[in-house]
Design a protein that fits this description.
heterodimer, A: mainly beta, 6-stranded mixed β-sheet, 5-stranded antiparallel β-sheet, 11 strands, 0% helix, B: 115 residues, mainly beta, 7-stranded mixed β-sheet, 4-stranded antiparallel β-sheet
Chain lengths: 108, 115
């Protein structure tokens, strides 16, 4: 059974600091990885996808993938109160499996 | 584009009743997914489809059925509703085939309560 693991948090980060979110996965054949943000009562919204080892940057967000360690992370620079949400990690091939999510709280 | 649409937004069912949750997308995406999310939890995959006429089980398929007769539509059927199926159901579509264009988008969700 494929699994995606995340620390449920909550993770509290001061405004303006870097928030670091981590995720591990059990399936070595997983090819595509996604990070989503979900506000309470809303549907998940895609932040970034990553497929190759290394870093991928988009604005204040950087995703990092290490396939050898089966590890994917998301860094949020200059954290804002509006970044307070649950962050979901997902991965797989045709079948995309989600972790349980990490609650992030940005302290003003 | 409307993106991914789901109907209804809310529904209350009695134990043993049946219903179909509708999902449609207008982005010509090849993949579609059904997930459920229980309070405070992540998303669990129910069924998915890689194209019209092709469906496969996810992590929690029991009690559900799907069909995909067109690229646009992917309905989810609950045959005999049980309280354990009380959840928020999300449909998603995904354009896969190239790493540069691999994206997955979610609908607004259907909140289902079984009493």
């Amino acid at each position: 059974q494929k699994e995606v693991e995340q620390n449920s948090g909550p993770l509290s980060v001061p405004e303006g600091a870097i928030a670091s979110l981590n995720c591990t996965y059990s399936d070595r054949v997983s090819q595509s990885f996604f990070w989503y943000r979900q506000y309470s009562g809303k549907s998940p919204e895609l932040i970034m996808s990553i497929y190759s080892n290394g870093d991928k940057e988009d604005g204040r967000f950087t995703a990092q993938l290490n396939k050898a360690s089966q590890y994917v992370s998301l860094l949020i620079r200059d954290s804002q109160p509006s970044d307070s949400a649950t962050y979901l990690c997902a991965g797989g091939g045709d079948k995309i499996i989600f972790g349980k999510g990490t609650r992030l709280h940005i302290l003003p | 584009n409307a993106g991914v649409t789901q109907t209804p937004k809310f529904r209350i069912l009695k134990i043993g009743q049946s219903m179909t949750l509708q999902c449609a997308q207008d982005m010509n995406h090849n993949y579609m997914y059904w997930y459920r999310q229980d309070p405070g939890m992540g998303l669990k995959l129910i069924y998915y489809s890689v194209g019209a006429g092709i469906t496969d089980k996810g992590e929690v398929p029991n009690g559900y059925n799907v069909s995909r007769s067109t690229t646009e539509d992917f309905p989810l059927r609950l045959e005999l509703a049980a309280p354990s199926q009380t959840s928020v159901y999300f449909c998603a579509s995904r354009l896969s085939g190239s790493y540069r264009t691999d994206t997955q988008y979610f609908g607004p969700g259907t909140r289902l309560t079984v009493l």
